[in-house]
Design brief:
The structure is a homodimer of 688-residue chains. By secondary structure, chain A is an all-alpha fold. The first copy, chain A, contains 20 helices and no strands. In chain A, helix 10 packs across helix 18. Chain A is globular, with a radius of gyration of 24 Å. The interface between A and B is large, with 77 and 77 residues.
């Protein structure tokens, strides 16, 4: 029975990949624009490739060591799962990004025809990454589960934890290195370009301008893809494990999450066709239409699939009593509704139409310090609604599973289902997110190749502005889903021990548990602190290099000599790779140390500590950064004196502070929260 | 037996009060300086008095409602305890502050004679508040316990929880209102004075200058006194309650914390005599000598007292086996060592001699944004060592109590003892802290009355600079002790249910417990956000008023007309009082709501959630603010271009951001953490 579901999931994964490839071919076939445009796009392309290959080489070294350690101390099946997970994540990120860096050029060119065509190209460019992420992820779970089961049935599930850890490690590296890269280049380019030399953003005379464009791709596309690739796999795996430990190894419930995943890929593919402009030319609305269509289609399909599943697989067992098709639908609905809420909440805190951003803009009129104080206040406040969404989602799905009516176990599994349902939207979400760097680059290429002002103003700039919103909004989704995913992993951590007859008492009155909570709570603070600093240091390198080029290469400012773009790309690449290593290993080493020194209960408490402060800091940082960014844009539209006013200067300070907040430290919390949890799960056999 | 200890504690408390009164009389008798100086001091005195009386009237209204509610729903003994706690706290704050606002003037005058005399006056002025705090606190515990026991022996301990809640409520109001007042006045005065009008700090032409001076007293003296008054009482009460629930109602161990408190008052009084300048004129060293002397004396006395206590009271009971005099000494030592560590750690992160402050100063050279990024990074990193101190203190004392050897209960009591021992230093700590506003005001009065430049430069400015360090260092102590105190309260919360036969399972796998943790974790973020904003709003009122006076009153800038100081004082007072109400009620209402809606286990988890994020945010904010402040001072000493350089401007931005961080939101976390816990303890009878 389970075999049928696994094969179905594998086929859906393959369909996702196929759709991604076909879309990629379509994108590559589109018109490429003038030679000048192609030249710029090629430079971005080169830089992105150079960065990724360097990043992957470094990760390969670290990964090889970990692979051997897992093989020797834990299990070779898990070790090979680890390898597959890391490779799959890298492939999705690499291929997806190779298409966004081709889509950017073609989107610029399409802008000459119409807004509709440019939007179509930008979104399709992004959707390659989206569908590859979910397709590869689901296919690798299906294949590796089958392979592992054929080799050693007892280890089939444990092998999946190895798979999850592989993506985890890849995602923490990708998020950190991508995040440092993108902001070091951005801040560095702005500091010398805009502030010192007084030239506009994306000006081709700025030697750091290509590095800045590369950064958008490696941070927002490759980083986000790796992050969600991991959340997707890890959540499905954790929900499957919960299904196994709750209902027993023989129950088909363990494979139900795969069904949800498979259906959602199809729903997401159909959803991409709903992305089209209405009469009002409301771009964000077009993207939301695609998301809503995917969600509704998935929900309808969930219902019919549950009817079939419950009728066919569980007619005679007590498992059948766990859920009805309606409660399955409602539980999955909790995940979908949480996704919707997070979109609305993030938009409220980060877009120009609402109070928080307006308040920061107003505070800018009294100076730099009041801008920062207002921004910090908004960022702290923005944690409240998401916290209630997470709490609400947990309690609602637990209740739907009957957790409050004595069926605690089923309630836990229901939380896993809600998380899996939330994550099932990953394909379309990554598509919408990757749309951001495509349009951002398209606008940059247009600026650098001195494209027609009108086309830029009416087509590319509006597309780019929406890209900023989609980037912020999908970050909110990534964080909440990471939080839910980590909670499911934690639940599974406790269940694993129970399955071996050990009941863990995470009693808060036990000082070891308190110690674990404090150490866990501390990790995100320390980790965030390091990342904030790393951006500053890497940006400093860019500033010096740009200053050197302005000084030594005559004619740059007059436009008669070409800056050495490659030098800046190289400096940021090296800086980001160097800075990523220690912070990436922190969440891997901490659970091992705490587990062996303070014990398994302290480790469990540490997991919760990390989730709590990590979630709050991640939300604080990404929302705060987005709000600062848009407060600056609000003033640039003419409010409080517009550009060049004192208020604008203060707003630029806030925006610069917000950059590493929202694009480096904040998003890097997600993989960190999950890595800690999956490492803990991985070392359970050693703690037993 | 217990009666003897209670009487001893009462006598020690009375001795502390007597010493405070005698010192106050001595301070008041000292020379008062010129009429101009007296006039300024009188204005500060007036403003401070007006603020406190307005604050107390507001608290009285809120308190009256709560008093009646406690009486009706819980117990009238607890209600009267609440009244006594609030009154005692208010008295200590009021009287202590009335002496610091007299000590300031006399310190200015003493500066004419010698540094030694000025230091003596400033420290004695501060030590009135210190000794009154501990004296009144210990005396009120002793008296109210005896009274309550005479009326209803069963409720004697519960009445003490009411007493604790009274101080708690007072302290949350005092911290918030004082914190908003001090920073609104400071930021407001700086924004118009220094930045707009270009006049120096403490210039008598600035209409907000008196409000600024008043702020130092209401924030650092009255606010800190109320905060530590509460921590002191609540910790002793919680340790006594733990002693009762762990060893049984008849055990004398419940009264052992009172012995520690009593002895330490005497040790603190003796310690004050050790505050004297050495040959090297190292002022901070003189203060540390007093602290070290108090700590060592207390530790020695703890040992002999334990020998006597264990020999006399517990010869035949199994209680005697709980501790030996040596383990008592070591457990108390854990508290004293934690105090020492916190001093060193705070100094490392906030003083000019070390890396963190230097890094922020260096980052200021590249602008406002990099200063802020560096400061945020330092602030986040500064949470690490204190977290390990707290974890270490918990684990060490638990181990000393035999917690890891099967005696979990005694281990918990040992944590209470370590906390009580840490808090026993409160007297000398408040003395050192209150020294800060005295010297700050003394320097301000000297500036405003145009005192001899040389006396100011060689005596008052060095004294004032040390005051900044003592304020930062004692904040670190206040936070850590608040964290330990809250943990003891939490332990007692769980024990209370156990004493009624209900074992609470705070299992982290229970979604209600997770919900409690998240809601608890959220509170400090939301609370901090509101306080940051409140400072900005109140400061805005000051800015407008100062601008109005400059515009409407001719001759202010020429020094021919006097500004209306009282108007500014009035505006800040009203603003602070208005802004304090909702944030103060948040920690009172939240545990009640969570307790009744989500249940007692969710409430317990919420307590821990508040402690974790509250502790981290409090440390982050106070250390970060201190570091920003001193980075600015470092540049003012001539580094990176000195005053008026671009680096200095950036550093001023950081300092202004740090102001509400370190003096409003950060310190206000302490009472918040404790209030939530004590309210939970208070409503236990309703949750049973």
């Amino acid at each position: 029975m389970e075999q049928g579901i696994v094969i179905f999931a594998g086929i859906c994964g393959a369909v996702g990949i196929l759709y991604g490839i076909l879309t990629a071919i379509w994108v590559v076939k589109q018109e490429k624009g003038t030679p000048r445009m192609q030249e710029i796009a090629a430079a971005i392309h080169e830089g992105a490739k150079a960065f990724l290959s360097r990043e992957y080489r470094t990760v390969a070294l670290v990964g090889a060591v970990i692979f051997v350690l897992i093989g020797i101390f834990l299990s070779w099946l898990a070790a090979f799962g680890f390898l597959l997970g890391a490779t799959g994540s890298a492939t999705a990120g690499y291929v997806g990004m190779m298409i966004t860096v081709r889509g950017n050029l073609r989107t610029s060119q399409a802008a000459y025809t119409s807004l509709k065509n440019a939007l179509k190209l930008a979104f399709r460019g992004g959707s390659v990454a989206g569908l590859l992420v979910v397709g590869l992820a689901l296919l690798s779970i299906a294949i590796y589960y089958s392979v592992a089961k054929a080799i050693d049935p007892k280890q089939a599930f444990y092998a999946l934890i190895g798979l999850g850890f592989g993506c985890s490690l890849m995602s923490v590296f990708a998020r950190i290195a991508g995040g440092i890269y993108t902001k070091a280049a951005d801040v560095g380019a702005d500091l010398v370009g805009k502030v010192e030399a007084g030239i506009p953003e994306d000006d081709p005379r700025n030697p750091a301008v290509i590095a800045d464009q590369v950064g958008d791709n490696v941070g927002d596309c490759a980083g986000m893809a790796a992050d969600l690739y991991e959340t997707y796999i890890v959540t499905l795996v954790a929900a499957m494990l919960l299904g196994k430990t709750v209902f027993g190894a023989e129950s088909t419930w363990a494979f139900f999450p795969l069904l949800l995943g498979g259906i959602s890929i199809i729903a997401s593919i159909v959803g991409t066709f709903f992305v089209r402009l209405g009469a009002k030319q409301y771009i964000m609305g077009a993207l939301y239409k695609g998301l809503a269509a995917s969600g509704i289609l998935a929900a309808v399909a969930f219902y019919f699939v549950s009817v079939w599943f419950i009728g066919k697989f569980l007619p005679d067992s007590k498992d059948a009593l766990a859920f009805t098709p309606w409660t399955v639908l409602l539980t999955a609905g909790v995940g979908l509704v949480a996704t919707g809420f997070m979109m609305i909440i993030t938009e409220y805190f980060t877009s120009k139409g609402f109070g928080p951003v307006k308040m920061i803009a107003k505070a800018s009129t009294t100076g730099h310090a009041t801008n920062i104080i207002a921004g910090i206040s908004v960022s702290m406040r923005s944690t409240m609604p998401p916290a209630f969404v997470v709490v609400g989602a947990i309690l609602a799905s637990y209740a739907l599973g009957g957790g409050f009516a004595g069926k605690e176990d089923v309630g836990l599994f229901a939380i896993g289902l809600a998380a899996a349902s939330m994550l099932s939207m990953t394909g379309i979400i990554v598509a919408i997110d990757s749309y951001g760097p495509v349009t951002d680059n398209a606008a940059g290429i247009a600026e650098m190749s001195q494209m027609d002002e009108k086309v830029r103003g009416t087509v590319l700039d509006p597309l780019d502005a929406v890209g900023n919103t989609t980037k912020a909004v999908t970050k909110g989704y990534a964080i909440t889903s990471a939080g839910l995913c980590a909670l499911v992993l934690f639940a599974e951590y406790a269940r694993e021990f129970l399955a071996h007859g050990i009941e863990l008492h995470f009693k808060l009155s036990n000082p070891l548990v308190l110690a674990g909570l404090f150490i866990g709570g501390l990790l995100p603070f320390y980790y965030g602190s390091r990342l904030m600093l790393a951006v500053g240091e890497a940006a400093g390198g860019v500033v010096e290099e740009v200053r050197r080029q302005f000084r030594e290469i005559a004619g740059i400012m007059e436009g008669t000599a070409k800056p050495q773009y490659g030098q800046c790309v190289d400096i940021v690449t090296k800086g980001a790779i160097k800075a990523m290593i220690i912070p990436s290993l922190l969440p891997v080493a901490s659970p091992i140390l705490v587990g062996f020194i303070l014990g398994k209960e302290a480790l469990g408490a540490m997991l919760i500590g990390v989730i709590i402060t990590g979630l709050f800091l991640a939300i604080q940082m990404t929302s705060g950064g987005g709000a600062w960014d848009n407060a600056k844009k609000f003033i640039e539209e003419g409010m409080y004196g517009g550009k060049k006013s004192d208020a604008h200067k203060a707003a630029v300070t806030g925006d610069t502070v917000g950059d590493p907040y929202k694009d480096t430290a904040g998003p890097a919390m997600n993989p960190m929260i999950k890595v800690v949890n999956i490492v803990a799960l991985l070392i359970v056999p050693l703690l037993l």
